[in-house]
Amino acid sequence: MNMHSLILRTAGHFLLPLLLLFSLFLLFRGHNEPGGGFIAGLVAGAAIVLYLFSMDIAAARRVLGIDPRSLLGGGMTLAVLSGVPGIFRGQAFFTAQWWELAMPGIGKIKLSTVLLFDVGVYLVVIGAVLTIMLTLAEAED
Amino acid sequence: MLYAILSTFVLAAFSPWVHRLAGRHSGWVLALLPAALFVYFASFLPAINAGETVVIVTPWMPGLDIQLSFLVDGLSLLFALLISGIGFFIISYAGRYLEGERDLGRFYVVMLSFMGSMLGLVLADNLIAMFVFWELTSVTSYLLIGYNHEDLKARKAALQGLIVTVGGGLALLAGIVMLATAGGSYELSEILNSGDAVREHAWYLPMLILILLGAFTKSAQVPFHFWLPNAMAAPTPVSAYLHSATMVKAGVYLLARLNPALGGTEVWFTVLALVGAVTMFLGVFLSFRSTGIKSVLAYSTVMALGTLTMLIGIGTETALLAAMTFLLAHSLYKGALFLIAGILDHEAGAKDFLQTGGLRGALPITSTVAMLAALSLAGVVPMLGFVAKEGMLESVLEAPGLVPVLTLLASVSAILGVAVAAIVGIRPWFGPRVETPKSPHEAPPALIAGPMVMASLGLVFGLGPGLADVGILAAAARAVNGGVPVDAYLSLWHGLNWPLAISALALVAGLLLYSRWDRVRALLAWVDIAARFGPERGYERMMDGIVRISDWQTRLLQSGYLRYYIMFIVLATAAMVGVTAQIYDVSAGPLRLQDLRFYELVIVAVMGASALFAVLSRSRLGAVAALGSFGFTVALTYVMFSAADVGITQILVETLTVILLVLVLFRLPGFLGLSPRLIKFRDALVALAGGGMVMLLLLSTHNAQEIPSIARYFIEEAVPSGHGRNVVNVILVDFRALDTLGEIFVLALAAVGVYAMIRFRAEDRK
């Protein structure tokens, strides 16, 4: 899989953190501007896939640090759990809950189960993209 | 009440740990729960006997009018007491009987769940709740019968029981929905009061047939009786429980429960009385010619179930009281006898009556208890079985019709019943000592306590039938009679009358038959041949047929070629949409070409060109690239209509798709040959059909404006209730979060699927 391209290699090194940061940016702004968990997950997945092409499979797995299949399970769990708090307030499953946190120096931060859900989506999308890509890439050998 | 039933399931979940902690005493520890439940249920007795019915309601799915409501009256209480009371002995017995078994922990889980399901079934007031518990008993009994899962026979018997009872359960579900429609409620307590409306309803007959199918399969009535004797592949405590107080009695319970709503008609009487009488006769006949200890007992259960069905069918007040008495008597003696069969197996290694004889000396207590229970089975004075049998014969003689047939079948069954009782009560204990596989010795207290209590109760209630009558049976019969007290009472001595004469005759003839048991059995060898054409054969034929049909349709539909799958999907969708469009008269809106802008035309032209190139290209890479360019133009249109999120997603997905295809393309062989002209033509037609269908759908949305759009609601509510300005995202993660959850689940599943397909194939190659 290694393309032995110095340019791609160098670029991959620099682009990976940038793209991952960008994906987080997309994830968190998604509620008000274009973005969101699905898009962010695709960007993050594509970032790792780029790294995979510029380096090799082992390096891609190393930089990910976790089996993408665990991301699938973890993301699903998070998404389901985000629906639970509503029940304790006597509302239907998946009713969104919002909390406002006053942070000194930054201002008010809005936290919600919706964000948790979106993070779950994010993880599942990364997990799905990478599970498929890595499996296919490894199958080639 | 809800907690009482839930407690069994909760304890079931924890029972493996209890088992690990309590070790060899786990049976006694776990049996504390049924004992406590028995006391709890007994606390209802005074109120119920005073003529009250208690309804306890807990909302469950209020939107669907389904409630976890419970109805406590004489009938349900009688069952609940039997289930918890006998359950106490069964679980304490099982702890010792299965001691040291690897799967004992699992056994407790299933056994307690089964007990809970059974309690729920008899106490439920809501029909749907009752049905859920009904199916739960089928599932848990499947696990119980198949407890020895390494044994092929046990697995087969378990599956057979499951398929027969669940098949009947399906019919029952349809039946109770009709019943609820006719009765105007899903609550039994209300349906039972609107019996006239139900009986006069146009659906009465189909409803009755469906409900009877459910009850007959569960209670092993002819021709569904075959699964019950096979179910004795289960460990003995399970058989004892299934046969005495639970599972198979569920069908009888249902018939008794619905008697006020469905009973009293000509059809009800004819079907129930005849099927019941035939089942009774066939059961005792097959019991008489078996030699396996458990199979003799199992077939005699079939007889008892037939008797109960017949009595409920006859439906006179004497018959209803007799049914309840018989129910109690049978539960007591059958529970005791099955547990004694377990003792014979456990302490002497005997599984067949021919292997036994003269064991009275080695097992003095067990043999006494067995004889006591057998006396009740035979219906001999002064056991409760006698009272029940007298009541049964009296009801038959007074039946509203079919008296000659029923009397004949009942008398013959009574004779054979005495013979069967003699096989059980005399054969293993008297006569010359037969060598048993294990050297026999007396059973420990945990094993003999249950049979002793149950058999003694049979004697106590026999000597003082008023005790059982006033205690619960009158209340139970009243419940079956639709709340009207029955004008009948139990007594040991009814005077010199026909039932007594038949009983006496049965006793003599039965003992005579027993003395010639071996010879009569040899004469009946032809039954084995006849059995090959019986209903069990039909069941096996049906199962083979199902396997063959699914094999055939799998070969037909699952060709393994992606192109055929896609073709089926596209054509089927197009056909369904087309037909629906025809039915609802959907027409395409007008094409307003004059509104097209120039750049839109350019995009459409690029789109068309890429599609055409993808179709005509002779290389794979070319086709992939063309598809990619097609995808990007689609993304452009999204952006043009200011759907930024969708556009971004489309671009990202396109990018990843191209990467994916590149990864896969390496592995594909080159085109060996292109499709012949005819196939190309067919594919083009399929593609046109699919594309045309989508176009028709899109154009017709213009005409569908009469349905108010929900877009406005989403846009207006996004900021105030969704706290977000990106409407698409608010819909995805808040308004329609459940849909998104489903989608990511599918995504995860697809990823796991790809992983499994590629990895497992790679491993196979190694």
Q: How confident overall, as mean pLDDT of chain B?
A: 87
Class by alpha and beta content of chain A: mainly alpha
SSE pattern of chain A: HHHHHEEH
Radius of gyration of chain B: 34 Å
Tell me the major beta sheet of chain A.
2 strands, antiparallel
Compute the average pLDDT of chain A. Answer: 85
Number of helices of chain B: 33
Number of strands of chain A: 2
- Overall morphology of chain A: globular
- Quaternary structure state of the chains depicted: heterodimer
Give me the count of strands of chain B: 2
Biggest interface and its residues per chain?
A-B, 50 and 41 residues
Residue stretches of chain A low in confidence (pLDDT < 50, at least 5 long) are none
Classify the beta-strand content of chain A into a percent band.
5-15%
Distance between the termini of chain A: 9 Å
- Tell me the Rg of chain A in angstroms: 18 Å
Characterise this structure:
The complex is a heterodimer of chains A (141) and B (766). Chain A is built from six helices and two strands; from the N terminus they run αααααββα. With 141 residues, chain A is mainly alpha-helical. In chain A, a hairpin with a 3-residue loop joins strand 1 (98-103) and strand 2. The mean pLDDT of chain B is 87. In chain B, strands 1-2 form a two-stranded antiparallel sheet. Chain B starts with a helix and ends with a helix. Chain B is built from 33 helices and two strands. Chain B has 766 residues and is mostly helical. Chains A and B meet through helix 2, helix 4 and helix 6 of A and helix 29, helix 32 and helix 33 of B.
